[in-house]
Each structure stands twice: as C-alpha cells, then as structure tokens.
Amino acid sequence: MKTFGIGIMGCGNISETYLTLIPRFAGLEVRALADLNPEAARQRGEAFGVAPMSPEEMLGREDVDIVINLTVPDAHFAVSSAILAAGKHVYSEKPFALTLEQAETLRSIATERGLVVCSAPDTFLGGALQQARELIDDGRIGRPTSGTAHVMGRGMEHWHPNPDFFFKKGGGPMLDLGPYYITALVHLLGPVRRVTAISGAARQERIITSQPRAGERVRVETPTTIHAIMQFASDAIVTIGASWDVFAHGHHNIELYGTEGSLFLPDPNWFDGALALTDQSGEREAVPAWDHPLGVPNWQRPSGPDLANHRAAGLADMARAIVEGRSARCDIALATHVVDIMTAILHAGDTGEMVTLTTTCERPAALRPEDARALLKQN
Ligand SMILES: NC(=O)c1ccc[n+]([C@@H]2O[C@H](COP(=O)([O-])OP(=O)(O)OC[C@H]3O[C@@H](n4cnc5c(N)ncnc54)[C@H](O)[C@@H]3O)[C@@H](O)[C@H]2O)c1
C-alpha cells in the first residue's frame, strides 16, 4: 500500500501519543511537525526525530498528504480549513468543529476539492467496543430500547498543564468527552433523531492545581454539568450525564438495555475494558474479551494496570479508505452528526427546547479482528 506522508499541526500534550502510536500502523510516516509555538514543535521533533517547521512550511510540503490537527478546539475549524486549502486531507482531534455550520462548511470544501476529512475519536474501533457491536448485531440483548451513559469527574485543572481551553467555548465535558460516548453510541445504535437537556455550572471560576501554573484562575464560559436525553432513529432512548463538577459517583460508563437483556460497557475513552451481559434472567455475566488486536493493553499509566491505547487506528483506516475508495470509519458524516448531537444538547440546555436534528449518518462499518490486523504493521 502507498505510504502516506503525515504532518502534525499542534505539538502539545496529545501529540506525544500520536507520535508514539503512528509508527505501529501500516502506510503512515510522520514527516513534519508544526506549532504556532516553534519551541513546542522543536521539542517534539527532537524527541521523535521528525523535522520541525512553521505551519506554512508544513502546508507547502509536497510529501505531506494528511495533516493531523492537534490544535485546541477553538482553532480546529480555521486550521482544518487552511489544511484543505493547501490541498491536503485532514484528520482532526475532537471536536473537529464547534458548530454544525463549521462542520458543514468543512464537508463542502472537502467534497469540492476531492479531499477527505476524518475526526477522532477512533476509540470505538477498539477491541471492547467492537465486541459490544458484535454482541448487539448478533441480537444478544434483542432490540436495544434504552440506556444510560455517564462521564463525570472533578475536571481537568488538576492534571493538564494548560487547562484553560477545557472551560472555554468549545470545551466543557459535553464537547470534550461527549465525543467518545456519543460516537460509541451512534456506532452501536445508529443515528439520533432528537435531544433535550438541562445544564449548569457548579463554579464560575476554576483554580489550576497542576504545574506549572498552580494557583492561576480560569473563568468558566461553558456548562460543566449537562444531563441530556437522546432519542435514536431506532426509537432507543439514552440518558447521558456529563459533568466536571463531580468528585465521585457509582454509575457505569455505558449501559444498554434491550428486549432480551442488558449490556454493560467500559470507558469509551480507551480501546479495551470489561464487558458484561445479562439475558432476561437478569443474571450478570462477564464477557471474556475476544482476540482483537486493538484490545491489547499497550499503554502504561502512572498507577494501575496497562490499558489499550491504539489512537491512530482511525488515521490508518482513513489512509486505507483513500486507497480503496471507500468511506473511512471515522469519516466526516459520522463526525458531523456527532457535532450536531452535542451542539443540539448544549442548545437544549441553554433554552430548554427539544431539538430535532437535521443531520444523520450510517453506522460506520464494524472493524473485525482481521480488519484491524490489516491496519497494523506486520512484524
Ligand atoms: N490531552 C489529551 O489527553 C487529549 C486526548 C485526546 C484528545 N485531545 C484533543 O487534542 C487537542 C489538543 O489537545 P492537547 O491536550 O494536546 O492541547 P495542548 O494545549 O496541550 O496543545 C495544543 C497545541 O496546539 C498549538 N496551537 C494552537 N493553535 C494553533 C494553530 N492555530 N496553529 C498551530 N498550532 C496551534 C498550541 O501552541 C499547543 O502547542 C484538543 O482538541 C483535545 O480535545 C487531547
């Protein structure tokens, strides 16, 4: 297969993960790094042996085919527009757009220019969520009729070195962590028809406790607690609670209830995790993990067991999709629908309305173990 030249725009926190994981996938070679802050690009370049350069220089490089947009959410639209204008494909971190209008604009520019835009998250391609997909498609819980999702925690100011963007427009738990949950749910259940929500914020100001800015204050400009209800096109009803105002809770990440049983799913921010299933008896049984290469733990944490982190799987699938002339699993139709759902939830939270969505999408194709194996370099 052709090797795609990759450029990375934005050399902050998450760029290290991409630079570590991309070399494990076939058909990808990182050839350029750029950042508004030249020092950030220089440091990553030195650590990973990739040429640092200015954003303009990277966009002019003939040997860069896909640019990964790892800038902050507020810059995603402008940066992705510039990448497309330079004639290159885009793989963006989430949320790839902050409004439906931005999403549709990128989609029409890409279509016009024959370019592909894809977006994180790609964690739904992991072993756990793909196994959940197989269980649902095999009818193990019957027809899914309802469920719950909870992504709640204390916030971001205790660990991220520059946590400001999490509390600004484009941040907040719905746009920051919602993509993992909502993308996973659309992948499992199909598109959403309408949403409603109530939202708020426990604090108007957050105090940074991480280094190097401990003690600085960040003004909160987005809801930090959102409780929403989504009705899927299939009629399934799922409640989602997203908050950065919660110190502890006892909810499961995702639970899906069907006409024949229930399915308990792990954190969709990772590629692995425990699944459990019940039938109509209600007796919960652990599901042994299947042999899926994107469910294999490979990522050390400061404490606790290793986790599976195969970020860049979506990028590898995108490259292969371009070669094969098919839709990528993380393509812009899915990402646009997810942005539509999240922004409609935020709008509903502001206004109290029930919002009927204007977009829809196909469920992305399943990524079975053999499909995943084909994305990885064969050693
Ligand atoms: N940090 C994580 O663990 C994590 C995980 C998954 C996804 N993400 C997503 O990845 C994105 C980046 O997150 P991060 O934590 O790396 O942020 P960060 O603040 O650490 O890094 C962002 C970098 O982008 C650069 N930048 C900003 N605007 C730019 C522009 N217009 N052109 C070029 N460079 C620009 C900044 O100088 C900075 O170095 C966010 O959308 C976030 O939601 C982060």
Automatic annotation (TrEMBL):
Family annotation (Pfam families): GFO_IDH_MocA (PF01408), GFO_IDH_MocA_C3 (PF22725)
UniProt keywords, alphabetically: Oxidoreductase
An MF annotation (GO) of this entry: nucleotide binding
GFO/IDH/MocA-like oxidoreductase domain segment(s): 130-263
Domain named Gfo/Idh/MocA-like oxidoreductase N-terminal: residues: 4-117
Top-level taxon: Bacteria
Protein name per Swiss-Prot or TrEMBL: Gfo/Idh/MocA family oxidoreductase
Organism: Arsenicitalea aurantiaca
Upper classification of the organism: Bacteria, Pseudomonadati, Pseudomonadota, Alphaproteobacteria, Hyphomicrobiales
